[in-house]
């Protein structure tokens, strides 16, 4: 997955939140990353089948 961002907005985010977009983007390379929307959808469909 590739990301791109505005350098000025990156600096603003770093100042406001203490994290750069490059650091934040690394979460998507985490093998333990869980997409909450996907997991909620999976849980809802499995409960409906019971």
Indicate the radius of gyration in whole angstroms.
Answer: 16 Å
Question: Quick check: average pLDDT?
Answer: 80
Question: How many helices?
Answer: 3
Helix content: 55-70%
SSE run: HHH
Q: End-to-end span in angstroms?
A: 36 Å
What amount of the residues lies in strands? Answer: under 5%
Number of domains: 1
Form type: elongated
Given as residue ranges, the uncertain stretches (5+ residues, pLDDT < 50) are none
Q: Sheet with the most strands?
A: none
Output the structural class.
mainly alpha
Extended strand count: 0
Organism: uncultured Thermomicrobiales bacterium
Pfam families: BrnT_toxin (PF04365)
Protein name: BrnT family toxin
InterPro entries: BrnT_sf, BrnT_toxin
Descriptors for this entry?
elongated; 3 helices; BrnT family toxin; 50 residues; mainly alpha; BrnT_toxin
Describe the structure.
The chain is mainly alpha-helical and 50 residues long. It has one domain (7-48). Helix content is 58%, strand content 0%. The chain contains three helices and no strands. The protein has helices at residues 7-17, 21-25, 36-48. The protein is elongated, with a radius of gyration of 16 Å. Pfam families: BrnT_toxin. This is BrnT family toxin. InterPro entries: BrnT_sf, BrnT_toxin.
